[in-house]
Amino acid sequence: MKKSTWIYIASATAAAVLALAWAFAPRPLEVEAAGVTEGPFEATVDEDGRTRLRDRYLVSAPLAGRLDRIALREGDKVAAGDVVATLTPGLSPLLDDRTLRELQARVSTAQANVERAAARIERARVGVLQARNEVQRTEELARQGFVAPSKLDADRLALLAAQKEQESAQAERQVAAHEVGQARAALGAVQRNAPGTPFVLRSPVAGQVLRVAQTSEATVGLGMALLELGDVSRMEVVAELLTTEALRLQVGGPVRIERWGGEGELQGRVRRVEPAAFTKVSALGVEEQRVKVLIDITSPPEQWRALGDGFRVGVRIVVLSVGQAVQVPLAAVFPLADEAGGMGVFLVEGGRARLQPVEVAARNGTHAWVKRGLAPGALVVVYPPATTADGARVKVRKV
């Protein structure tokens, strides 16, 4: 062969070897990276909540009767002392002719009892006069010595008994007069079939009407709910937290209220963590122990005046706040495969991934607070692939 042919063959062989070496050579692993920062850190408990009036007032019927139509509607404003409902005595039931005649006979009987009591009073008055005359004669004879003292005592007791009989007859006449009034009232109610004096119900507080339970005119029973009132300017938020999360809360701690339907965030504070928990079944069918947390809205009422009772909101309760903390994205931290159960990250140094154990003090929804193991400005791998190993060559992917 010619020398030039050997040169071409050698060159082609070298090119093929280089191509195969390049094709099978290990390439750097493309990863996403983020910087380690230092700044304020907050750990929060995030949960859905709902608004609720701090004080609700249920106006109910204090007596049975006929309710006039309520003109108020949901959302109407009322002042303390305003008339919100009117009750009148209920109409008597429809009666047949026999019952009507019985009521009329009852009136006649009561009137006859009055007349009989008057006759008894007159008879008792005559008896008193007779007993008094008898006492006077006996006293005169006793002074002359013609009767015994026992006779005088007996006549005086007879006079006292006659006087008591007269008093009893007068009391009986008063009873009979009251019975006449009752009988006439019962008969008059049936004959007139008209309502009596109305009874008004007034608002116990200045606020708005939340619900009208009975709008139309109707006959209501004792204790029946008529309408519900409340002051919408005194609103609170109720969130149901897991008991394990509620233990981290502090009364008076700050709360940020989000997703309430308006612009920006509302500020609040924890007022109370109720002492009694309850069981609630989650959407996955798991039984959870939860407790209610009451949150006061501290933002100006003008900012959230559109909020009503029972509106859904999101709450972010701050349980930890640090002024300056070393932070990394939460996706960069992973558990180490050791018995100590520590955490670690992959640092990007000189184009290679370096495994770095870290101590995580706390975490929130996006970042983790690294207490030891990292310095601000370092570059860490975010969402490290399963093939990432200590010392592996990596290439930061541009996002």
Shape category: rod-shaped
Q: In what order do the strands lie side by side in the largest sheet?
A: 2-11-15-13-12-16
SSE run: HEEEEEEHHEEEEEHEEEEEEEEEEE
The proportion of residues in beta strands is: 35-45%
CATH topology of the largest domain: Elongation Factor Tu (Ef-tu), domain 3
Query: With helices defined by DSSP (H or I, 4 residues minimum), what is the helix count?
Result: 4
Radius of gyration: 48 Å
Low-confidence stretches: none
Give the overall pLDDT as a whole number.
Answer: 83
Task: State the oligomer.
Answer: single chain
Number of strands: 22
3D architecture notes:
The chain is α+β, with helices and mostly antiparallel strands and 399 residues long. The protein folds into three domains: 38-52 and 232-396, Efflux pump adaptor protein, beta barrel domain (Elongation Factor Tu (Ef-tu), domain 3); 63-87 and 198-230, RNA polymerase II/Efflux pump adaptor protein, barrel-sandwich hybrid domain (OB fold (Dihydrolipoamide Acetyltransferase, E2P)), CATH 2.40.50.100; 97-192, Helix Hairpins (Orthogonal Bundle). It is built from four helices and 22 strands. A six-stranded antiparallel beta barrel has the order 2-11-15-13-12-16. α2 packs antiparallel against α3. The longest helix has 48 residues, at 97-144. It is rod-shaped and about 190 Å long. The two termini are 56 Å apart.
Topology:
Elements: H1 3-24, E1 29-35, E2 37-53, E3 56-60, E4 65-67, E5 77-78, E6 83-88, H2 97-144, H3 149-192, E7 199-202, E8 207-212, E9 218-220, E10 225-230, E11 235-242, H4 243-246, E12 254-258, E13 266-273, E14 278-281, E15 287-297, E16 312-329, E17 334-335, E18 343-349, E19 352-363, E20 367-372, E21 379-382, E22 394-396
Parallel strand pairs: 1-22
Antiparallel strand pairs: 1-21, 2-11, 2-16, 3-10, 4-6, 4-9, 5-8, 6-7, 8-10, 11-15, 12-13, 12-16, 13-15, 14-15, 16-20, 17-18, 18-19, 19-20
Helix pairs in contact: 2-3
